[in-house]
Amino acid sequence: MRIGLLTGGGDCPGLNAAIRAVVKQGTGEYGHTIIGFRNGWRGVVDGDVHPLGRQDIRNVLPVGGTLLGTARFHPRQEDGSMDAVLATVEAERLDALICIGGDGTLHAASRVAEAGVKIVAIPKTIDNDVEGTDLSIGFHTAVNIATEALDRVHTTAESHNRVMVVEVMGRHAGWIAVNAGIAGGAEVVLAPEEPFDIDQVVKFLRHRHRAHANFSIVVVAEGAVPREGSMEFTQQLGRFGEIVAGSVGERVSAEIAERTGFDTRLTVLGHVQRGGEPTPTDRILGSRFGVAAVDAVSAGTSGVMTALRGERVELVPLAEVAGRPKRVPEELLRVARVLA
Amino acid sequence: MRIGLLTGGGDCPGLNAAIRAVVKQGTGEYGHTIIGFRNGWRGVVDGDVHPLGRQDIRNVLPVGGTLLGTARFHPRQEDGSMDAVLATVEAERLDALICIGGDGTLHAASRVAEAGVKIVAIPKTIDNDVEGTDLSIGFHTAVNIATEALDRVHTTAESHNRVMVVEVMGRHAGWIAVNAGIAGGAEVVLAPEEPFDIDQVVKFLRHRHRAHANFSIVVVAEGAVPREGSMEFTQQLGRFGEIVAGSVGERVSAEIAERTGFDTRLTVLGHVQRGGEPTPTDRILGSRFGVAAVDAVSAGTSGVMTALRGERVELVPLAEVAGRPKRVPEELLRVARVLA
Amino acid sequence: MRIGLLTGGGDCPGLNAAIRAVVKQGTGEYGHTIIGFRNGWRGVVDGDVHPLGRQDIRNVLPVGGTLLGTARFHPRQEDGSMDAVLATVEAERLDALICIGGDGTLHAASRVAEAGVKIVAIPKTIDNDVEGTDLSIGFHTAVNIATEALDRVHTTAESHNRVMVVEVMGRHAGWIAVNAGIAGGAEVVLAPEEPFDIDQVVKFLRHRHRAHANFSIVVVAEGAVPREGSMEFTQQLGRFGEIVAGSVGERVSAEIAERTGFDTRLTVLGHVQRGGEPTPTDRILGSRFGVAAVDAVSAGTSGVMTALRGERVELVPLAEVAGRPKRVPEELLRVARVLA
Amino acid sequence: MRIGLLTGGGDCPGLNAAIRAVVKQGTGEYGHTIIGFRNGWRGVVDGDVHPLGRQDIRNVLPVGGTLLGTARFHPRQEDGSMDAVLATVEAERLDALICIGGDGTLHAASRVAEAGVKIVAIPKTIDNDVEGTDLSIGFHTAVNIATEALDRVHTTAESHNRVMVVEVMGRHAGWIAVNAGIAGGAEVVLAPEEPFDIDQVVKFLRHRHRAHANFSIVVVAEGAVPREGSMEFTQQLGRFGEIVAGSVGERVSAEIAERTGFDTRLTVLGHVQRGGEPTPTDRILGSRFGVAAVDAVSAGTSGVMTALRGERVELVPLAEVAGRPKRVPEELLRVARVLA
C-alpha cells in the first residue's frame, strides 16, 4: 500500500513519535510505502511530497514539533483546494491517508473521507478538547510545562507576598488550566467550563490573604469568560479563532490589583506551552496511535480516529468526535476547587 | 469524623499530594479530624500518631516521599499486630482509616476491614501492577525517570558503538520497562510478561548492528525471566521478595557481551526510580484519589479502593483487586516490539 | 556574635542555599546567633525579626525564593529609615549584618557600613551585572530557564516557518540574552551592550530565510536599545526602574513582521525566569558565599562582598563594585554573533 | 586552511556544541575546510574521514554524545599508529588538527604536536580534573545529573529512615562528588583528595541519627580511598584505568550497614552521568572553546589548549597541563564538610 501522511494545525510535542511509528510499522511489518506531505493539508494541495524511510526518523522520538512541518490550512470545496487534495491522492496513487491533527484537521479529514478517500486520523491538540479520546497528543507535555511555570512563580509569589496570575492555553476547554492548577497548587483556576464571578475571586483572595497566607496563584485559561455582568471584557479574535487583542489574563490581573490593592503580576505562558521535548507519555501516546493507525489502514478501515480509552487504544468513528469540544468533567473541576 | 491516615510499603513520589488532599478535603468541606500515623502500619500498631492540620501540608505537593514516613510492615493475626491495630483504632476513636499503599498494604487493609474497621484504600506502586486502576501513584514518575536514563545512555551508546543494558524496576509486571522502552526508543525490552529467549535477543542485536546501526539499548525489568532452557539464571530473594543477589540485568549483559563481542555496559537504575519530585500526573492522581477517598469515607463506604478508569475516578471493592498483579496488555508489548 | 541576615531586592533561586549556609556555618563552627529579618531592609527598619536555627533551614536547599521574604525597599537618610536601621542593630545587639542582594541592596549596605555597622554582602541578581564577581546568585538558573524556553520555541519556529522573538530579562546588561542565545542556538541576540540596527536585523533574517532555513529565533534583552535613528521606540519606566509600558520585544517583533512579512511571534518570559528550583550551580554558589560571609564576619572584616573569581571565592571591597553594571565582554558577544 | 577535527576518550554532553562551533566559525568567517575523523584517534590512524559542513551540525547543539563518534584509543610510537597519524595528516593535506578530549587525548595531542603537526586542543572530561582550566566540557552536566540523583534518593532516605550511599564518577579527583554533594545536601562526601577514615564516617552518622535526623546521604567518588588501616579494600583496574571489580561504594555501604545497623542502600550512578542533553553551561563552554580553537589555529598557534579562566577564554600551553590531575581546592572541600 501507498499511504500518505500529514500533520496539520498547530505543532506540538509528540507528533514526531507518531510519524516515526507510522513509518516503522508501515514500512516494517506491512511493507507499505509512506509518502509524507509537507506543511499539512497545504502540502497535499500543492503535491509537496517527502517520501519517508527509516533514515528520516532517526533520533526524532524525543524531538518536539513535526519533521513534516505543519500549517493552519484546511481544504475546502469552495476554493478548489478539496479537488486539489483528491488530485494529489490520485497522482500519488495513495491507498489511504493518515492525518495527524486537531479539530480543524479532523473536520477536513471527515470531508475528504466523504469524498471517497480512505482516511484514519490521529488526534493531537494541547487543549485536549477532542471528543472520544482520553488524551490527544501534545496535551500532556503542555500540562507539564504549565505546572513547571506555576512551581516557578510560586516561590516569587511567596517571597514577595504577591498574587501571580498565569494565563495558559485553552480556548474552548480548561484542561491545561485545571490540570496544571491542581498539580501546581493554584488557589484559583478559571476555566471556560464555568463562567467566573470576579467579585467572588476577589473575595476569596482577600479572605485567604487575611486568614492563611499572603500570596496566591491564579490560573486563567485563555478562553475563560466572566459571568454576565461580573466584569467588562471584550476580546478581538483573529482569522483562526485565536485571540489577537484583549487577554482575559490581563483583565483579571488588573481587576484583582485594583480591587484588592495586592501586588499582582501577570505571566502569559504563550508559545512555550507547545514546544520542546515531548514527555514520555506523549511519546508513548504518539507511538501507540501511529501503530494503531497503520493497523487500521492496513485492515481497510476508514473514517476513524485512534483514541485512548483507559488502558486501551481503540478506533472511534470520525463522525462521532466532531462538533462540540470535550469539556473538563465536574469531578476534576471540583478537585481544583476543594484543594485551593 | 476522626479519620486515620497512613502510607505503607515503599515510598514514591505523589504520596504527599494524596496526604495533602485528604487533609484539605477532610478538614475543609467536611470538618473531619485527620490523624496521621508514622511509618505505615508500624505506627498504627505502636499508636505513633501525628495529627495533621493545614500547616503540616504547606508546600508538600511537589515533594517526593511521604511526610508520614513509611515501612514495609503489615499487621498479621499471628503476631498480635492485628489486635494492636484494632486497639489503636479504638483508643484514637477512629471512624475510619485511609490507607495509601501497594499490594501488601491493600491486603492488610482488606484484613483490617474484615475485622470491622471502615477502610478506604489508595493504590500506590511504581510497578503499576495493582489491578482495577489504570494508574497507581508513583508509576508515572518512575517511567519519566527511566526514560530520562534511556535518553542519556542513548548518546553514549551511539558515540561508542555500544550495547547499553538498563535494568529497571518491575518484579511481577513490566510496566516501567515497556513504557520507558517505548518512550526511550529501546531496541529490546524484556518484561516478566514474556519469558525471553537470549538466543533471539542476541540474534536480533547481531542483525541490527550489521544492517542498521551499531549500537543498541536493551531494557530489562528486574523481574524478567529467561524462557526455560534459554539461559542459566538464579536469583536470591530477600524477606520482602526483593532481589538480594543475582540481577537479571547483569546476567543478560554478560550473555550479550560474551556471545556478540559487542562492547556492552550495564546500568542498574535502582533507587532513583522511586525518588524526587512527582510529575504533574502523579500530583494530580494523588490529589484526585485523596479527595475521592475522603468523599467515600464520609459517605460511609468501606472496603474499597480509589481507581482511575479512563477519565474518571471510581471506587472498586478491595476484594476484586487482590491476588494476581495487573500485567502489561499485549497491545503495549507489541508496540514496544514493532518500534524496536 | 549576634549576626543579622536579610535578603533584599527581587527574589531568585539560590537565596535559601545562602541563608542555609550562613545559619549552618554561623551556628555550627562559630557558635554565633543568627537573627533573620523579614522582607529585606523593610524588616530591619521595622525590627521584624525571625531568629534562625537549624530547624528553619531543613529541606530549603532546592527551594527557590527566600524563606525570609524580600522587598524592593532600601533605607535612606532622608526619610529616617537609615536611623531606624541603626536603632534596630543596637536594639538587637547585632555585631554584624550579612546582606544578600543586588545593586540596590549593595548600595544600601555600603551606606549602612559607612554609618558604622559591620557588613558583609553576598551578591544576587539574575541579571549578573554586579561588578567584581564572575557570578551572582540566581543568574545561572535564569539562563537555564531562558535556554529551555528557546529550545521549546525552536521546534515551533521550525515546524511553522516562523520568526520567534523571545524577550528575556536584563535591563542594563545582556548576560541572560547572550548566554541563553548561545546555548539555545539563537540567530539574533540583542543586548544593551550593543545598540542594534533594526535594518541589519531584518536584512540578516531575509538572507537567512532565503539561503538557509526559513525560521529564526531572536532573543531580545529587555534593556536592548535601537541605534539612534534606526527605530522609533519609547519606554515608560516605573518606580524601581522596571519597564511598565513599551517592551522592546514587542517593538522588534512588530518591525520584523512588518518589514519581512514573515510569520512572527513574541514570547515575553517574565517572572518564570526568577523562580523555581535553583540549579546545582546556584545552590553551590549560595553555599560557598554563605560560608565565606560568615568566615569574613567572624574575622572582623567589614565593607566587603563575597565574589567568585575563577575557581576561588574572594572578598572584594563594596566600594569597588558599586556604580556601573558589569557588561558582557566582547568575546562572548562575538561568540553569539559568529554562531548565529 | 584544511583543519582536521576529532573527539577522543569517553563521550560526554557538550562535544557537539564544540564541533558545531568549529564548523560554523571555521567554514564561516575564515572559509576553512573542516575534515572530521570518526571515532577519535582511531579514525585518524585509519583515515576514516567525515567532511563537515553546515548541514551536518543542524540541531546538534542540545544533543549529547559526539556526532563524530569516539574511542579510547591513543596513537603511540611503538605500534606504528603515530606514523599512521602523520601519514593521514599529509594525505589529507591538513594544516592543523583540533582535538577535543581528556587527559589521554591531550597527551596524544602533545606528542603529535612534537612530531610537527599544528595542534590546538579543547579539554573535555566529566571528572573536571584537567589542569589549567576552570571547567572542561561535560563536567557541568555530570554534576547536574548527580545532584538530581541525590535529590531523588533524599526523599526515600527520609521516608524510610535510611542511609543512602551514592557512588559517582571521579577516579583521580572528587569534583563531581564534592559539587553534587554540596548541591544535593549530602551529609558525607568521600573524595580522592582526602583519604577517609571509615570509623569517623560511622561515628558521624551515629551521632547525626541520634541527635538530628535519622537518615543520611553519603556521596562516594569512585576514586575515594580509605586512610591506611581504616578499612580493607582492593580494586581491580582495567586496561584504561577503569574500575572493573570492587567498587568503593559497595565497600563503604557494607561497612556502614554492618557497623551501624542502619538500613543502608547503595546506588551506583554509572553511565547516566555522561549522557543526555548538555546543560546550557556545557553548550556555551563547547561553543566558546570551538570558536577560540579555530581562532587560534587560524592565527598559526599550536601546542595549546583552550581554557576557561574566570570570565575569559584563554590559551594555555599543552605542556603545562599534562601530568597530575587538577584537584578540588580545600575551600570547596571545607564547604562540603561544614554544610554536612
UniProtKB/TrEMBL annotation, chains A, B, C, D:
Catalytic reaction equation(s): beta-D-fructose 6-phosphate + ATP = beta-D-fructose 1,6-bisphosphate + ADP + H(+)
Chain sites annotated for binding ATP: G10, R72, F73, G102, D103, G104, T105
Q: Which residues form the active site?
A: D127
Tell me which residues bind Mg(2+): D103
The Enzyme Commission number assigned here is 2.7.1.11
Q: Name one Pfam family in it.
A: PFK
How does the annotation summarize its subunit structure? Homodimer or homotetramer.
Name the chain's protein. ATP-dependent 6-phosphofructokinase
What species was this sequence derived from?
A: Cellulosimicrobium composti
Q: What is the lineage of its organism?
A: Bacteria, Bacillati, Actinomycetota, Actinomycetes, Micrococcales
